[in-house]
Amino acid sequence: MGxxxxxxxxxxxxxxxxxxxxxxxxxxxxxxxxRTHILKNxxxxxxAKDIFQEAFVACWRNIKDGKxxxxxxxxxxxxxxxxxxxxxxxxxxxxxxxxxxxQSFLTVVQDDPIPKEDILEEEQNRSAMQTALSQLGENCRSxxxxxxxxxxxxxxxxxxxxxxxxxxxxxxxRCMEKLRSLSLQIKxxxx
Amino acid sequence: MNDSSYISQxxxxxxxxYLMDQMDDRERSQFLxxxxxxxxxMQQFNEFKALFHSVEEAALREELESFHSELESPSKxxxxxxxxxxxxxxxxxxxxxxxxxxxxxxxxxSEKLYQEYFTADPGxxxxxxxxxxxxxxxxxxxxxxxxxxxxxxxxxxxWAQKKDNDTxxxxxxxxxxxxxxxxRAISFFDxxxxxEQASFKNEAAFYQGLAHLKNGDxxxxxxxxxxxQDEKSRELIKKLKD
Lengths: 191, 242
What we know:
The structure holds 2 protein chains of 2 kinds.
Chain A: H1 2-16, H2 20-40, H3 45-64, H4 73-90, H5 92-97, H6 117-135, H7 138-149, H8 154-161, H9 165-190
Chain B: H1 9-19, H2 25-37, H3 39-72, H4 74-81, H5 86-106, H6 109-117, H7 134-144, H8 148-159, H9 166-178, H10 182-193, H11 201-214, H12 218-227, H13 231-241
């Protein structure tokens, strides 16, 4: 009992730190179950993968935001995926597509069903930032990824990018400034 | 978000340290206290946090794709994950071979014949992708790697839906036999042998014969082997009769 508890704590911590090994192990453990569930319930391979990955991101985000502090991450992830699939089956997009093309509707899953005002706002912010990120230069993107996601040290990163640590540090600052202004622009254009 | 100018580098780095869990307890509580008292700082922090998470999320999504592709080709994973030195593997194999040979000469004649003739069916080539048979081939990969129990549990899930699929029945039998569960193997092979159209009919009869042989039941073995119309079975029948 104490052991499972410890293991659960380790997984939560691994997610918080973006630990690749922990996340991959969870992915490999939970995906087959989600896949079986979706295939049994009128879904196909592509849908299983999409729903599962959305659920994975949501699970990871909730851990980061402190909404999930301790407990069994795998069970939690499975529940999120299952609920997402239920939501999808109930959504109007699914009903619309039953008789037509059953492949092409996956892109809309995320925005459905119509969320509350504030959730919508949050979603818009998020998608503006993702667009901004895709417009950011390759250098910025990989620098930010190595530092924020992979959690590598500034020394290591500067070596890999072939620049002095101080200029890598400056560049990181400039990149975030640029990312912010780009996403503000994108958001303002949408309004 | 508002459009005012961006935070200072120092601010950014403080936010980063907080978000990356690099603050000690004292710094963290000091930082949280400052946030409480300074609405503007709070607003800047929330904005930065959202940007920070968006970078992380984009990277995570890339990572998920690579997790997924490793899921589809487990062979890549096994070559990467093993760190045993080659000589250790060689030593283990040698010990196993010696033990195997020793066992071979200890066993009664039918067991000996079984050992001589039995090599697990090599399985079908696995083509991964979005095939509807994904589940079947996923288990095939386990089977080929010798993970018979895993393969069995995956195939049995499929079996619940397709009890008369002779390919499935044949490989369930093969997996059970390779795993040493002869009785179960025999009943799965039965399903194939009884089906005149089954494409694995000969193979199933041959392996069913071997399974009986392993059980020490020569009569039943002969009966099964006679149903297989291939050279190997005829040869084995001859040896059994001698």
